[in-house]
Amino acid sequence: MSAVVTTELTKRYPEVAALSGVSIRLEEHRIHGLLGRNGAGKTTLMQLLTGQVFATGGEMQVLGASPVENVEVLSQTAFIQESQKYPDTFRAIDVLRIAAGAYPNWDQAYADRLVEQYRLPVKRLIKKLSRGQLSAIGIVIGLAARAPLTFFDEPYLGLDAVARQMFFDDLLADYTAHPRTIVLSTHHIDEVANLLEHIVILDQGKVLLEADTDDLHDAAITVSGRATTVDAFLSGREVLERKVLGTLATATFAPRDGDELAAREAGLDISQVSLQALFVHLTTANAATAADRADRAIV
Predict the structure, then answer these.
(1) Burial of 79 (0-12, 13-18, 19+ CB in 10 A)
(2) Phi, psi for 204 (deg, rounded to 5)
(3) Distance between CA atoms of 245 and 223, rounded to whole angstroms?
(4) Would you say the C-alpha torsion 290, 291, 292, 293 has a positive or negative sign?
(5) Domains of the chain and CATH, by start
(6) CA separation, residue 294 to residues 242, 287, 290 (Å)
(7) Given a cut of 50, is residue 101 above it in pLDDT?
């Protein structure tokens, strides 16, 4: 069953199209990565799916129904925003108490453990909390709510590397014990790559790639060796990136059947491309293509 389905979903503002024809399908009980550069449309997409803004065009189904002004659907979703604002007169404990009453699956004992683990001063005023402590509030809510559909939009800004890893471990452990659908939007791609089962890459408001992460292992490979050997091997192949250092070269390309064996026979070293490297390759290439189209339009 699909937790989220969108068809040609579009959101336009007076001066910009935040989303243009986005069609995706997110299956339930999986961890999905929503990736994209700043301004790609990630937050807008999550706001649409959680009923916070209205679409200009297209269709969307969340947990089998439209989320627009749908209390039944929205009560089953949690949206943890990086930019979430709370009243200055609130304390962290006030926010958590409201969350406890808002989510039917709230686990108070688990929330208490998380508060202690992240050293969250729950009786301190919101306006006196650090960026990391504000992030910790969102993490506690997002995990303890155990909503069937949970969106995390850059949930750990301000946390150090140890606390981020703690969040990843907590997320995976609780997801394993209590399966639900999780959508994680992040810039720390390599840190979460092992968590993600499926990814959607947005770029300039459009879907650049949607795929299961298992299928991405063969999407690109990197070869390295003598520059002359590398260049000869790359002839006729789709090259994503090429770097030269002296007489040595490294290149990333989209492989065809038999290319790995051919590269080894040519004496080249082979390595898999990380999810972050593939993301950089794809978005950089797309930006260059868009710039080229713009230049031709001007001419």
Answers:
(1) buried
(2) 55, 40
(3) 14
(4) positive
(5) 2-213 (3.40.50.300), 216-298 (3.30.70)
(6) 25, 11, 6
(7) yes
In the block, residue with structure tokens 């990086």: 82
Structure tokens at 190: 């390599």
Sorted by sequence, the CB contacts under 8 Å of residue 168 that are 6+ apart come out as: 191, 192, 195
Cβ proximity of 201 and 174 under 8 Å: no
pLDDT, tens digit (0-9, with 9 covering 90-100), for 167-194: 999 999 999 999 999 999 987 788 888 8
- Nearest Cα neighbor of 20 from 152, 198, 208 is 208
Given a contact cutoff of 8 angstroms between Cβ atoms, the answer to whether 151 and 183 are in contact is: yes
pTM: 0.85
Paired tokens of 93? 């404990």
Distance of CA 239 to the CA centre of its chain: 26
Under DSSP, the state recorded for 69 is T
pLDDT in tens, 112-166: 999 999 999 999 999 999 999 999 999 999 999 999 999 999 888 888 888 999 9
pLDDT in tens, 44-56: 999 999 999 999 9
On the CB side of 217, CA atoms within 13 Å amount to: 6
